[in-house]
Amino acid sequence: MFNPSVVALIGATDREGSVGLALIQNLLKSSVDRVIYPVNPNREGVLGLKCYPSIRAVPEHVDLAVIATPAKTVPNVVEECGKADVEGVVIVSAGFRETGEEGERLEEEIKRLKEDYGLRILGPNCLGFIRPPIGLNATFLLKDPEIGQIAFISQSGALGSAILDWAVNAHVGFSMFVSLGSMIDLGFGDLIDFLGQDPYTRSILIYMESVGDAKRFMSAARGFARNKPIIVMKAGKYPAGAKAARSHTGSMAGSYDVYRAAFRRVGVVRVDEINDLFNCASVLDSRHLPAGPRLAIITNAGGPGVIAADAVIEYGGVIAQLSKSTIDALNEVLPPYWSQGNPIDVLGDSDVNRYSVATRLCLADPNVDGIVIIYTPQGAAKPVELAEEIIDIVNRSGRTKPILTVWMGGDEVWRARELFYRNDVPTYSTPEEAVKTYTYMYKYKRNLELLYETPEDLLIDPSPPKNFLKISLKKELAKGNTILTLDKCDRFLDSYGIPRPKGYMATSLEEAVFVASRIGYPVALKIISPDIIHKTDVNGVVLNIESPEELKQEYLKLMENIRSKASGARIEGVYVQKMVKPVNYELILGTTRDRDFGAVIMFGAGGIATEAIRDYAIGLPPLNQVLARRLMEETKIYNLLLNGFRNRPPADIKKLEEIIVRFSNMVVDFPEIKEAEINPLAVSEDQIYAVDFRVVLDTEAKYTSEHHRHLVISPYPTKYIKPWRLKDGREVLLRPIRPEDEPLEYELIKGLSEESSRFRFFQVIKEVTHEMLVRFCNIDYDREIAIIAEYSDRGRKRNVGVGRLIIEPERNRGEFAVLVADDFQGKGLGTKLLDMIIEIAQDKGLESIYGIVLPENTRMIGLCKKFGFDIKHGKDEVLVELRIKEEAKPVKASEERVTDLESPRGVEALSGEKPL
Predict the structure, then answer these.
(1) Per-residue pLDDT for 609 more than 90?
(2) Between 431-451 and 302-314, two packed helices, what is the crossing angle to 10 degrees?
(3) Which tens digits make up the pLDDT trace of 815-863?
(4) What domains are there in the chain, each with its CATH number?
(5) 346 near 358, Cβ under 8 Å?
(6) Residue 804: what pLDDT?
(7) How far apart are CA 756 and CA 154, in angstroms?
(8) Facing residues of 294 across strands?
(9) C-alpha torsion 387→392→394→395, nearest 10
């Protein structure tokens, strides 16, 4: 669609001032090998070209149709395109949902036609798209941008038009410019998928108002953000108001926080200003991102230096502490009254040499991660001469540390700025811009490092028994109850291994006294009612009851409070709970449902004042140990938990990580839970307890085959876990790979023979890097499944084989690879892994799978023949492909291991996947 050979413009005209005229004029400027056909039943010709009455009358197959006709005619035109087998459609026409009910009806009709004919549609109500590298402008805008390596996706046509106008004047080039419009089909995820594989694109800029298909966006962004920076400016930072929520978590977790958490989770950079989009685009694709946040500032004017230093603190950087050797060396070349620290003020009379020496010393200083050089037009240093010196230093340094420049002024410095632009040295008009961009550079790199840090393997059951819980939730919903009482909430905590104080339900005063005597004083009393969510709001909680006499008094007071403050509430009893003492910290751990991103998890400072304190962070489930720790690290209270506070000891961080992961697993497993909250999560000296837990159910919960419809990140696919016995009788556990498996994957690859390595990777892997292992272990289960064979030998776990299926973005086919450890060859494992890959491909609805095999790997080629693969021999490689919808040939048990076909020392199949 975005690289068409034949384009038809439906609604072409030569009427002055019309959209149709602007479009045909732009299309006719296309490269010479592209054919343009005007379509308009009311015209014989347009601009000297023959005009066709309909798309079906065009004499060639059309790859792309651009529709610029009145909205009411568009559904019929789209249907004509479908009948003509057009692949892609751009609808620039306006007059759809933005106009009301009739417009919405037209959109729904177009969506139906899209499904019927398998069309891909951009728009409606969009500007279209421009691809300068291939000479295609399919918009009605009057500007043609230069060729560049930045792709810009805009949800706003007006803003997109303004930015394009600015870019043309500023000589900023694009690999692609696209306006999404109403996004009835193509959205951010589709465009990221395309641009992620586009050789002309190095970075992707997005102006976003709403995410659209959040799951597709997250999956696409996660797939490419490591290799191509994705930078988003999200509008709507301050919403006019928040919808009503029934828990603290629901009222605190606003849209801005959720978007920020979502972007961070997939490595996307979020910026606040349009300038930041382009400033970041020019530096984030660099291979030389800063190693740390420590910034040195070199300036010939005190004021700009102070402004830069303030900006470093404001944007989360660190002012570098210069080493003694650097200070001593600067004393040799700078006047005695220089600043003696950072910022380095080389003074207003500075010449080029002072700047040069200061820059070289900072590059050599191990305490410095990056440099901002500020120049104001004064002193002996001339702007162009100094710029040439800095460019020379940058090139000679190998760009090991980022150097950002600020040449302040107008006409006097513009030539110097042009020099920086041409030599790929970042330059800015103000110190704040430079510093902010540097901190974005560091945070982008650091976020990716943390995102793909290897998590610890927590000993947590990934799929605890939960069917009895689901049955109980169905019963509650059938009764019309949307709030679970404390006694029912306990079942969730117990099933997921989240510690709680001893406590039981009592339906009378006598039962309450009996329960208290069993669990021991002091105790707390809490009202149990399906109609009360915040018990403290109605004085429904009594703490620190020390004796049976006190309990009797407080029980009667409690009931009186409820009768007066919640007279209509149904009372089922009281919850008698053992008091936790002493409590060092009160935390909150909750979940709520976001409109765009589904279930989210919140962690922060808890207690009854949690909404007033508002110290919290948001994460998206599922969470592992690393993600749980990052969630905590983003709160202020984390420093207290880590280090202790005023004679309070530090909290058990590992235990907190485990509880957060267990809570996340519960959220993943239950789409029926709309909101849930542990508050307080009490941290005592020897344990962490869920003192109070409330659950709000989703009355609209539907029981379908789509178990995780409430999540935008697919969780660990437990359905693919199965034990299997090798030919020699040993048992392995076949299961999907996890990020925690990085050590096992390292041992497998490191232990391969040279032939095994060459068969799998097309080369011998001499060094197994963390980056390579991240690619193999930290995968998106929507796009890739890797089944490992885990073998336990006297308590030591090994990964002895991997079957991998990589699904292509269009989701109609996938590439597979199978790898078996050398000492586990000939045991039937490779055959079983390939069989599982085929099963998974069927489960994912793929049409085919394929792999690339070296010609000398004849045993693998033979195995594929056994499964019914088509074999195509090339000069240097063999393509094996299986049509999934045509039944694969079963491999009988008697020939299941096909040991005569397996490579005796290694890898049984090779995909074309190269190591990172």
Answers:
(1) no
(2) 30
(3) 999 999 999 988 999 999 999 999 999 999 999 999 999 888 888 888 8
(4) 1-141 (3.40.50.720), 294-451 (3.40.50.261), 718-901 (3.40.630.30)
(5) yes
(6) 96
(7) 47
(8) 318
(9) 140
